[in-house]
From TrEMBL:
<dbReference type="GO" id="GO:0003700">
    <property type="term" value="F:DNA-binding transcription factor activity"/>
</dbReference>
<dbReference type="GO" id="GO:0043565">
    <property type="term" value="F:sequence-specific DNA binding"/>
</dbReference>
<dbReference type="InterPro" id="IPR020449">
    <property type="entry name" value="Tscrpt_reg_AraC-type_HTH"/>
</dbReference>
<keyword id="KW-0238">DNA-binding</keyword>
<dbReference type="InterPro" id="IPR018060">
    <property type="entry name" value="HTH_AraC"/>
</dbReference>
<protein>
    <submittedName>
        <fullName>AraC-like DNA-binding protein</fullName>
    </submittedName>
</protein>
<feature type="domain" description="HTH araC/xylS-type">
    <location>
        <begin position="113"/>
        <end position="211"/>
    </location>
</feature>
<dbReference type="InterPro" id="IPR009057">
    <property type="entry name" value="Homeodomain-like_sf"/>
</dbReference>
<keyword id="KW-0805">Transcription regulation</keyword>
<keyword id="KW-0804">Transcription</keyword>
<dbReference type="InterPro" id="IPR018062">
    <property type="entry name" value="HTH_AraC-typ_CS"/>
</dbReference>
<dbReference type="Pfam" id="PF12833">
    <property type="entry name" value="HTH_18"/>
</dbReference>
Length: 221
């Protein structure tokens, strides 16, 4: 099992604007974050601390020439993210939240954890199903459902719905069009999406998007 303190996000400093700084601050509330332009420092920290996952990212399209990524030496998986965009950062935060939510999943269930990552990565797929996720964990539908209830305290359908609405809210906060968001989170019926969103959030997607836009303008004025 990977705990949040065993994961580190390294951010190449570069030139960060206010929204990028805000995104980094959100991530730093969950996990260890190092913002630096010193590649030697990165190598030393990664080698010294026994992190189980190392994520190295930059907002630029590529890392500086002084950052010899292939020279990093550690025994942990290293995830490289260059040209980080809003969707990449949302996916990263969702990835981190997966570890936060699944801290009760024991180490003898790596296939179950793998299935949860599959769900996270395929929320945009309309045909995301219990059968597909269960097959990844090499379990029957019935057993997989019981595992879900045991470890997460909720059913598969409710879990996926919650994850999709969380992603929809994040995209709407970024100003994405409601129709675009609808398809981006796995719904192919705008009416159904709006109904589910309203049930979970209390307002329809258009209203939520407008509220967040007005709130953002208020903070910037």
């Amino acid at each position: 099992m990977i705990h949040l303190d065993e994961l580190v996000v390294v951010v190449n400093n570069g030139k960060l604007d206010d929204s990028q700084i805000e995104s980094i601050e959100l991530i730093s509330k969950k996990v260890n974050v190092l913002v630096t332009d010193d590649f030697v420092q990165v190598c030393e920290i990664v080698a010294k601390h026994k992190y189980k996952i190392v994520i190295i990212m930059t907002y630029a399209e590529s890392f500086p020439d002084t950052w010899k990524i292939n020279e990093i030496r550690c025994n942990s998986p290293v995830v490289i993210l260059a040209g980080a965009k809003d969707f990449n950062l949302f996916s990263l935060r969702s990835f981190i939240e997966t570890f936060e939510e699944e801290t009760d999943v024991t180490t003898d269930n790596p296939l179950f954890r793998k299935s949860l990552m599959y769900i996270e990565e395929n929320l945009h797929e309309n045909d995301l199903s219990l059968t597909k996720a269960a097959s990844l964990a090499y379990m029957s539908r019935c057993h997989y459902s019981r595992m879900f209830q045991k470890y997460l305290g909720t059913g598969f359908k409710q879990y996926v719905m919650t994850k999709r609405i969380q992603r929809a809210k994040a995209l709407l906060q970024k100003g994405r069009l409601v129709t675009e968001v609808c398809y981006s989170v796995g719904y192919n019926d705008l009416t159904h999406f709006s109904r589910v969103f309203r049930k979970k959030v209390g307002v329809n997607p258009s209203t939520y998007r407008l509220q967040k836009a007005e709130s953002s303008r208020g903070r910037s004025s």
